[in-house]
Amino acid sequence: MAYEFIQTRVEGDKVGIITLNRPKQLNALNGELMREMGQALKEFDGNEAIGCMIITGSEKAFAAGADIGAMATYSFADVYRDDYITRDWETIRSIRKPVIAAVSGFALGGGCELAMMCDFIIAADNAKFGQPEIKLGVIPGAGGTQRLPRAVGKSKAMDMCLTARMMDATEAERAGLVSRVVPLDKLMDEALGAALIICGFGRLAVMAAKECVNRAFEGSLNDGVMFERRLFHALFATTDQKEGMDAFVNKRAAAFKHQ
Ligand code: CO8
């Protein structure tokens, strides 16, 4: 299957690898990319030969967030009526085989959220994680306000969401956001090694372990994510969202009016 915004390949006949492929936009996540990723994940999940998947980006960016240019002019009515952006982001949650995020470079906004939707994160030493949506006059919209506190605790999650600061790989490992940090040139070897170990175990036990850990992690997450989505969509009714995103697109500082 040929995709426009992702590349797929199979390693060792059993590990499905999805590489985000919008390098000029630092792998900014648009609707079509997320649709393609959902399709690729579902195909690997349904392929008897595949035992584990890896999602990765480029050296500079896993993904620098949802595509701000695409979102900049949307109204509340647009995003709420069409469940815009959020629609195709949920596919990954229905995947039953393990999905590893191999993160190098920026994992910001929706990019950080995508990494957190994977089962675990292996980071290169140049990885940077952040939820900078507040700078755009919005908030995380794909589970960031729910998964980040569960991963790193309330204080650090508040710090990240309210100040928009980035966390480097060392801090991310210390805080429990990522499971391992490796030198950049070893990232894919490390992720592939972990995936092949998983593939060597019984498929049913692997799926059951994933399901159970998620059960522990996701109690009442649905409510949290729905709540977050309504507020994320509602922020498209504000002047500050238009200002924040227009400022980014036009490469100028935002002047928020708090309305
Ligand atoms: N969207 C669109 N384009 C982007 C994005 C983005 N998120 N990030 C970078 N780009 C583009 C830039 O516009 C630039 O394009 P061009 O070359 O045409 O000017 C190109 O990528 C390279 O970027 P920079 O020149 O800015 O590269 P730098 O190395 O100077 O900076 C940064 C890298 C720090 C990553 C910077 O690009 C940046 O701050 N990007 C935006 C990060 C951000 O705010 N992310 C959050 C986006 S909002 C979001 O993710 C909401 C999630 C909601 C999900 C809801 C779904 C359910």
TrEMBL record:
InterPro entries: ClpP/crotonase-like_dom_sf, Enoyl-CoA_hyd/isom_CS, Enoyl-CoA_hydra/iso, Enoyl-CoA_hydra_C. Keywords: Lyase. CDD domains: crotonase-like (cd06558). GO terms for molecular function: enoyl-CoA hydratase activity. Transmembrane segments: none annotated. It comes from the Bacteria. Its EC number is 4.2.1.17. Belongs to the enoyl-CoA hydratase/isomerase family. This is Enoyl-CoA hydratase. It comes from Ottowia flava. The lineage of its organism: Bacteria, Pseudomonadati, Pseudomonadota, Betaproteobacteria, Burkholderiales.
